[in-house]
Amino acid sequence: MKKLMAIIMISLLTVGMLSACGQKNGKSADDKKVLVMATSADYPPFEYVDTAKSDKIVGFDIDLANALAKKLGYKIKVEDKDFSGLITALKTKQADLVLSGMTPTEKRKKNVDFSDVYYEANDMLITKKDSNIKSVEDLKGGKVGAQLGSIQEDAAKDLQKKVNVQVETRNRIPELVQDVVNGRFQGAIIEDTVAKGYLKKDKQLTGMTLGSKDDEKGSAIAFPKGSPIKDKFNKALKEMKDNGELDKLVVKWFGGEQK
Questions:
Q1: CA atoms of 223 and 232, how far apart (whole Å)
Q2: Where is each Solute-binding protein family 3/N-terminal domain found (predicted)?
Q3: Domain 34-121+216-254 maps to which CATH number in 3.40.50.2300, 3.40.50.10860, 3.90.1150.10, 3.40.190.10?
Q4: Residue 210 pLDDT more than 50?
Q5: Is the pTM higher than 0.90?
């Protein structure tokens, strides 16, 4: 009997230890102190690699994530991924949140949850100045580039139906810009805030604003479905909007107040 009781006690202790280990190793985002933030660091001024600072990822989204996390008692670990893989990173629990200039479209909402919108922008078509492209109709028969998985890819496909253009995608924004410069693309559709940075650097490029669908404007934070931290981040985001902290970040990275 004593031997049987000993076996039972050992079994119960083993189960308890395994359970404790499981709880320790399987923390939810709400229990963590360090949150993994996935982003696509090719999107200045939202997020990009600053080669002057030991390849550190910097930008508006990075500052915003750190400010929100500080208010809530978290720290942020940034991981760079292709834009097309960001939602997958959330669904497979490789990341706790995504800040990457991501628009909360209805299609994306089927897979992830979004915070309130924190910044609004429009689409822009960038072309070479010597291409004499004055309107989207001038693109007929040509090629237009867009980032894979972005709402600009959807915009390019809409344009394809209207103007009969070929659409090609790239994983990174610099690739799109380079393909416009070298003549492979007649134009590329990029968010205007990001596009303006490239226009400022390269004087052979020009751009025209295309606008965005009313229900597909702005950037929001993406979370896994049912994330326990989404409401906390929304509350902290509202606080930053109300007390002017968000406007200060907008001025720092975009040079002006929100539209």
A1: 12
A2: 34-257
A3: 3.40.190.10
A4: yes
A5: no
